[in-house]
## 1
Amino acid sequence: MKTTLAVVLVTAGLLLVVRPAVAHHAFSAEFDANKPVKLTGTVTKVEWTNPHAWFYMDVADATGKVTNWAFELGGPNGLIREGWTRNSMKIGEIVTVEGSQAKDGSPIANTQIVTLKSTGQRLFAASSRGAQQP
Amino acid sequence: MKTFGLAIIVAALATPLAAQWVKYPTPGTPRTADGKPNLTAPVPRTRDGKVDLSGMWQRISPTYRRNIARDLKPEEIQPWARELVQQRMEDLGKGQMSVRCLPWGPAYPTSERLFKVVQTPGLILMLDEGLVYRQIFMDGRPLETDPNPSWMGYSIGRWEGDTLVVESAGFNGETWLDSAGHPHTEALRMTERYRRRDFGHMDIDVTFTDAAVYARPIKVSLSAEVRPDTEPIEAVCNENAAKSLEHWTGKASDEKNSGVKVPPEVSASYAGTYVEQDLWGPPPHPRTIQVTVSNGLLFAELSNRGKVELFPQTQTRFAGFFDWSITFLPNSDGVTKDLLEMHISGNYRYTKTK
């Protein structure tokens, strides 16, 4: 999370310190920082659920074979308090995701950066100083 | 006008009209001349002169929320309880109430969860976003002598001057007192003291007594701040909890057994004091990480948390940093000026000052 956007939002009065609704769990329980991914694909589904929101994306490899990947976000409460909703990401949208793949090698990753291909806008970014997605 | 500019920024980021109650003026909130909530206004009182704790609160509990027993010496905790904590942490904390989607019971008051207080003369309610409630009876009734053990316990309260004192008992033995996994028995007694200092700020002290586990009462201090003009957002943990858990594998100690060895001169090049650039978490900021080498081992001390040993996973990435990892970023000359604190939500940069 970078602070420049936070300056804009502090001025706008949108600043909220957000704390995770569930107890923190270790990144390393689920994901492997040795396996970074940067994937571009088409959004197929959004699960706006507790304790973590998820979205799914069809990703084609070099041969054209398509795999449906699952990406884990923070909890919806934190996202809602940042101004995001279940409609912030549309089915069919093309996005680029950067994250780390699941330890068990499944087509699953956490979500560090999600960017809309069309505009370059970052989705689900923690906007305020001190926002605390795990 | 400021609100016009706000609308533009909100529209650029998200559907501006969604979830209006998340930011809706709460009636009765004292405000400054420009309409903003006045968090230092005097303590609100009820008609009979008692402090009114009603409101939407954010607990702030950095010191104790992960480990309520941090001030106790090991010998003050029963060996079986210490072993249980080790086992629970080794198992990645999968047994936590928050992961199993069960009520946290006595762990709520020392957590960092939002809660809403609704105060009436004979009863105070504390509501949690997970759809869990507590009733604190203010009608003079005594605690039950033979309660049916429960997740949330049974609570009675009284005023000592302007401090609300709450006594609770009747807990089942199922819950963890913190995310580290400190256990308790059905004999647990919990005493809370809530003192609202002004409109926006409250001091909270919680004491746990459970002689079968802890040789002396455990005292925990934390605080809470009003979150004005907002409401709890429902969070039903069980709706999709299994999804994440499917992919939790391994043990906590795996990262200590990577087999990776880092040459001493490389470890030495990482030593120094690094200052937070990308802010994360509660204040005070900036946090600092002091990296030191001792007997060939790398240690990192975080300004508001303490000192831990780092375990190499690669030549530049180390695990063991309070559930996060640290990646050092040496330049092409092998000089390291920056590190990244790696979270699920992304990487947070620190820069070396000395």
## 2
Amino acid sequence: MNKKQKKVLIRIIIAAVLIGILLVLPLEEGSIIRFLLFLVPYFVIGYDILKKAFKGIRNKQVFDENFLMAVATIGAMALGEYTEGVAVMLFYQIGELFQSYAVGKSRKNISALMDIRPDFANIMQDGKIVQVDPDEVEIGSVIIVQPGEKIPIDGVVIDGSASLDTAALTGESVPRMAKIGDEVISGCINMSGVLKISTTKEFGESTASKILDLVENASSKKSRSENFISKFARYYTPIVCYAALGLALLPPFVRLVLGIDPLWSQWIYRALTFLVISCPCALVISIPLTFFAGIGGASREGILVKGSNYLDQLSNTRIVVMDKTGTLTEGVFEVTKIVPSGISEEKLLEKAALVEAFSNHPISRSLKEAYGRPINTSKVTNVNEISGAGIEANIGDIKVAAGNAKLMDSLGISVNTIQEPGTEIHVAVDGQYKGYILISDRLKPSSKEAISAMKKAGVKKTVMLTGDTKHVADIVAADLQLDEVYSQLLPADKVTKVEELLAQKDEKSKLVFVGDGINDAPVLSRADIGVAMGALGSDAAIEAADVVLMDDDPKKIAKAIGISKKCMRIVYENIYFAIGIKVACLLLGAVGIANMWFAIFADVGVMVIAVLNAIRALNVKNVNI
Amino acid sequence: MKKTYKIEVDCANCANKMEQAAKDTAGVADATVNFMALKMSVEFEEGADVKYVMDEVLKNCKKVEDDCEIFF
């Protein structure tokens, strides 16, 4: 509890004790002494509200909750209901205190969850380790990370090895090993040896800073429910106030006209009851609190949601479109077969590796890896990369082409379809076919489970998009039991496909695209919700996506949907519950069944329950997927 | 231009009111207040004098909720 809260708590206790004493004292009903004595706890508990109400009037803020509380309680006192007047003020303060305590507590909880902010960096100065502000460390400096410390800045290990705890970033509890030459990212905790790291980024550009920035700014994009609530609050209070005014004046007038006792004080009392219920606090606090808790809970699981609007939309996910490579498969290609024709295996591999020497495509990398020897690139000239087909280049004075059947076709070579899963790289030298190399990619172990979990989470259609051949794509799709598969797509085709799928679905259901974030930026932004996977250390993905999965486990997609469903369920519970109780109390108050005590429950009780319910969104560990 | 400021405010509805007040201030293109993160992000209109606009934003916010603070 902070100072402000403690002060309010003390005032609450004093006022409560005073009321208790006054209630047992034998004071004459309606006496001026009794009135004056009750004013003491009233001012103790309510002076700041009265002051704020006064300021509100000066600033023409009539429908300010302080003003409403002031009118309701002063009115009650004037009607001689001293106990109720003081009690309303007392419980209002208790409610406010509880709310501010709960909000403060969850703020703290959530920032503790994301406790990845490094406070310092160790650098060597004159042979001694000195702690400095990570902001001051320049790119290329050497920092030292000791066991138990957080890596403050992204970089490359130049000395030492250690196991790293990445749980705060990914939710993954198995530590990662880091050795010389490995890239490490900030926010990981060094669990064993001393690491010397050469920094490759500034602090502000490092992973930890970026993630914190993302999480802290998450809820600036508001969800529909939040916008609904703030709009609701804007109209609710004035409507209830006018209704109160009407209730105070109309029935007595009608009775007056009819010639019966107008019962002024009874109707005014009922109107004051209205004012007590008029504060929209329970709703206004519980909805953003739920989203905040949901986003916080998700980030603990390594799922970063960039705004509460996305958390809202995720719950209506009906179509999940996935990229194949790197999303459903490991994205690690291995040469599994070499089939030469009129050339030695080794020569064929060498030709392919040379042609692909300058490419960074995973396929090129696996070719180079399989070749295993240093590549002399000086002879490789006129490299021409044909997107979706392959690469042509000159090696010395011979012309080599390596790529798929489409590329061979364009050279006038017809090749047989190969009946094995994998990507075939056909090689032609000076227009003559020299055989092919088969490269395959493994499915991720959890892909299959991930797809069935998505179905359980209400996804109607799972779609895979890939640039790979139809043959490979169909094998993968059948294995994973995907609903639809589109193969041999160029990057631009993927956008077109997603647009087609978007056009087919109805307004309410949402389309999620999941990719590894490297080549998918246009598709990520075109989908209703773009999810980048395995984003740890990839800035581009973090920028482009709406939801970022820190590790590359496809099961997290269903988990994210599950979290959003839980969150939305709580949001709706709170909306219906709070509005329901308030409306019920308004009606009961109007007919005189609910008195002011009832109204206090409607106001404070509902808020307490709604806040407690909202905090449940933080607990996402057991969201079943 | 968009800037984010730390704010202090006690109740969620007051935060909504501050958001509305900031939006209605001349020189502000758009504003959002995040009550949970206690942050206000303000998008300024082209060529607006940030310091002056923020003074006005604070003034307007104080009108709707006396007990608030914006740190800029």
